[in-house]
Specification:
Strand content: 25-35%
Distance between the termini: 22 Å
Number of strands: 21
Shape: globular
Largest sheet: 7 strands, mixed
CATH class of the largest domain: Alpha Beta
Length: 427
């Protein structure tokens, strides 16, 4: 049984809204403390693109990073190394098996990685299907895939989609792009679908550190099959739930409606960490001055939905302008960061379409939103593309913007900042 005290849930919101307001937004902060000991069984599959474009320094640095990632595994972890081309070649241990990360298997895996040769094509779905089958040999383990690629998916859309469907719910996947010829939207699809992240490693010398960090974090996972269950009263509906910290991720694709009043959103496995989610509910007009529980939120685990933590989202219609115009700081910041990402996407799309004025306008708005949120990292990425004058709020597109600049901004916008707790409702 899970130690329910490992999880805490708090809700940041302003429950007071003007009469007739139909929507309520709240930030759910979920914190997990594992006590420093990862009790769960974990399994890792490291997938390396070996298509022809990976030749030279990219392949050598990928090999170096893969070997470092193996060294970052716990000795009781299970793992495999897969090389991807038009097929998925099991470099180690082979024959559809996983190995334990004891020293002799680490050494053997390093030798197998060193022998990896270039192949052909980028059949990413085939690679992920292979990883799913390998992880299925340890059904009790929390599975994780670390995927590296430098190119776009070559598979036809039907077979690629079928492969992703096959892998649904079987593992979490962090995807890494190197070079400038991969598609950020494809990596975003993988990251969102498999509860992971996407990253662009611009300097190949940083690849080893990134692999080590990602695998180290995966080794700290202690709780799998965690979900958020939202229960609402009659006439109140769940409009959306999205992760807003530490990265942006729409959880609509992970939603399962249990009945007309309960929606279950699956989450990735957890270690010691904090994540924040933006919940939006829609409610009919209610009597002024009367408070309702717009939603009961539960953090649950397993097929039996064992409750790990719970809290309420409240709603009260009031005509008091002091109360109903108060802005919750956490909700405001995360709403701004969601808008920031939307403006970046629109701006980059305009840039690709050859529309500099539209691109500049949206990126300037994104730059302002980044500053308001305290997200200096994203602000700096935007400044790789535009010159921004904070005094006047004006901007102009820089000359010589590279594909690397665009990729860094596209991927970097996923990462958000956390804000201090403000007005909070707890149970």
């Amino acid at each position: 049984m899970t130690d329910a005290t490992a999880f805490t849930l708090t809700v940041d919101q302003n429950k007071f809204v003007p009469p007739g307001t139909a929507e309520m937004a709240a930030v759910l902060s979920v914190e997990c403390q594992t006590g420093g000991t990862a009790a769960a069984e974990v399994a890792e599959v490291i997938v390396i693109d070996r298509s022809p474009s990976m030749g030279g320094p990219k392949l050598e640095e990928a090999k170096r990073a893969a070997k470092a990632a193996v060294e970052a595994l716990r000795e009781d972890a299970h793992f495999a190394i897969v090389a991807g081309g038009h097929d998925a070649s099991q470099l180690y241990p082979g024959n559809g098996r996983l190995a334990t990360a004891i020293p002799k298997h680490r050494r053997a895996a390093a030798l197998a990685i060193d022998r990896m040769q270039l192949g052909n094509l980028t059949y990413t779905g085939v690679w992920l299907r292979c990883a799913a089958d390998l992880l299925a040999t340890r059904p009790g383990a929390i599975g994780h895939v670390l995927l590296l690629t430098d190119g776009m998916v070559n598979q036809d859309a039907h077979s690629y989609g079928a492969d992703l469907d096959y892998c649904e719910g079987r593992f979490a996947c962090d995807a890494v792009g190197i070079g400038v010829d991969w598609d950020p939207d494809q990596l975003k699809q993988i990251a969102d679908r498999f509860h992971g992240t996407r990253a662009f490693i611009e300097d190949l010398a940083d690849l080893t550190d990134h692999f080590t960090e990602v695998c180290g974090k995966a080794m700290g996972r202690a709780y799998g099959e965690v979900a958020i269950l939202v229960k609402t009263p009659a006439d109140v509906s769940v409009a959306s739930l999205r992760q807003v910290y530490p990265t942006l991720q729409d959880l609509g694709g992970h939603r399962r409606d249990l009945d007309g009043r309960s929606a279950l959103f699956s989450l990735a496995a957890w270690g010691t960490e904090t994540r924040e989610y933006m919940l939006e509910v829609a409610a009919p007009a209610w009597r002024v001055g009367e408070e309702i529980r717009a939603a009961q939120v539960l953090v649950v685990q397993g097929a039996g939905s064992e409750v790990l933590a719970r809290a309420n989202v409240l709603m009260c219609w009031t005509d008091d302008p002091v109360l109903n115009t108060e802005v919750n700081a956490k909700v405001a910041v995360h709403t701004g960061q969601v808008r920031l990402a939307e403006h970046v996407r629109t701006g980059l799309a305009a840039l690709r379409a050859g529309d500099p004025p539209t691109a500049t306008r949206h990126l300037a708005t994104a730059r302002t939103l980044a500053e308001e949120a305290g997200n200096r990292a994203t602000a700096r990425l935007i400044e790789r593309i535009i010159d921004f004058d904070p005094g006047t709020g004006t901007a102009r597109l820089k000359q010589g913007v590279t594909e690397a600049d665009r990729l860094q901004l596209d991927v970097g916008t996923d990462v958000t900042v956390r804000t201090p707790t403000s007005r909070t409702e707890r149970t």
